[in-house]
Records
---
Amino acid sequence: AQSVTQPDIHITVSEGASLELRCNYSYGATPYLFWYVQSPGQGLQLLLKYFSGDTLVQGIKGFEAEFKRSQSSFNLRKPSVHWSDAAEYFCAASDYKLSFGAGTTVTVRA
Amino acid sequence: NAGVTQTPKFRVLKTGQSMTLLCAQDMNHEYMYWYRQDPGMGLRLIHYSVGEGTTAKGEVPDGYNVSRLKKQNFLLGLESAAPSQTSVYFCASSSGRGAVGTDTQYFGPGTRLTVL
């Protein structure tokens, strides 16, 4: 069955430190891949997406993600985290319907 | 542009009651979606629509009905609410320039529903 897995439920990171969120997918062929962010009490906002081409994708708010076909992964990274990055992050994949991972909650400590 | 709006923001129902959640978008999008979000499970697709007058089932459609009578509106109905339908409901829309589910989705702020 098709699935999206985010292995980390909760990550705590210091402000200014780097952040990496993991995402693995299980699909027959490479799906469309997305990262969304949800701030407390808000809807989801797209950070970036990958369809094809360059495997390093740049997004908004200083985020980037790297697609690795051999590992079926699409990990999200940010070099230096700001307090405003505290949120829940969802990886999603789609061949024709969007499937979401369970999410990773990011806490930023001062 | 208001984007995607949802009405109401909060609602408490008793088991067996019915209600309708309204989603409206002002971006002239073709596709619209209803999701539910439960702790530890991410978002799951309930129903979706690829155009006015069309609807289709998603991953968890049981207990819900939808209608898309106007392009800008997508209604989600619960005919007989159950405690298992306690959740946060999100509506989303997308342009429809690609296959359904493959283009960027724009989300509303959500409706928190509690069924007692």
---
Amino acid sequence: GQQLNQSPQSMFIQEGEDVSMNCTSSSIFNTWLWYKQDPGEGPVLLIALYKAGELTSNGRLTAQFGITRKDSFLNISASIPSDVGIYFCAGQGGLTQGGSEKLVFGKGTKLTVNP
Amino acid sequence: DGGITQSPKYLFRKEGQNVTLSCEQNLNHDAMYWYRQDPGQGLRLIYYSQIVNDFQKGDIAEGYSVSREKKESFPLTVTSAQKNPTAFYLCASSIVGGGAYEQYFGPGTRLTVT
């Protein structure tokens, strides 16, 4: 199955720093979603994006739906220790998906925050 | 509280045995999904169901089976035909239609087969 290219694979930052990660695809998508997963738990939805160019915030998190519909970005400002985890992007509804509800996931960005 | 429950959290089985993982949701969602997650990998779709008594294969359905007899429940059976069953299994649900595609996940079941 198709997968998204998510980068970086891992990040090690100091508390208080800003973080940026992205997801790219060779195909267009109609929806981009960002999830966070804590160790041994299920992913939790952070932000959903439905329109090309859309910029949406959720607290210290900001995500953007790329204008080409082939990429998305997630930024975390002023990181704190509880931001530690794996962040996944997911795309829906591209031409290869036939418009179904199925999601395609990236492999994740593992974030470590040093106090 | 509305949500998705998966049980058990940890499951151990001997090779050659079938095992069934439970997934229940009280979100009144029509669609339910099963994913497999391996270390350092994204989520791979095993099976999904958009309506009761109907389901479709995902990308890695071989060695797995499902049923959808009730809207709230979508159990996954890992059969002895699955060559590498040890993994973290995640169940999710979503509404169908309406232009919203957010999937909500359960806490997962970690299956170890020896």
